[in-house]
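Posted in: Protein Modeling Q&A

I'm a second-year student putting together a small comparison for a lab meeting, and my supervisor asked me to include a predicted structure for Helix-turn-helix domain-containing protein. I've never done this before, so apologies if this is the wrong subforum. The sequence is pasted below exactly as I got it from our records. If anyone can share the structure token output, I'd also love a short note on what stands out.
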Amino acid sequence: MAYPIEVAFDQLGVSRTRGYQLINGGMLRTYKDGKRRLCSHVALVECQQSMERASTEGKRNAAAA
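Accepted answer (user: helix_wrangler)
Welcome! Here is the predicted structure, written out as tokens:
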């Protein structure tokens, strides 16, 4: 299953700007089909899990300081 990137951004709960930052930073994998850029369901789940890990690691590091 694949989503247009605008739908993927909505699913992640991020803005268009933040979504493109995730793509350019390599956290959200996408591919092109003709002129359309799509994101697979697996890539969307991996990105969401990565964002969760980064969020909890930041809280742990702040508590340790």
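A couple of things worth pointing out for your meeting: The chain has a mean pLDDT of 91. The chain is about 65% helix and 15% strand.
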